Task: structure prediction
Amino acid sequence: MPLEPGQPAPEFVLDSTAGPLSLGQLLAQGPVVLAFYVEDDTPICNTELAAF
Result:
């Protein structure tokens, strides 16, 4: 079920180079921007992320 703009994201945990990282841990530190993009590790992803 897709989220509508303004709705909170559900809790999730992702692997990182520093170990598991949860959305809750990040939110406890302050605001979070979630960005989903295609073509990771290509020139396209650098261009897309530069927009943020």
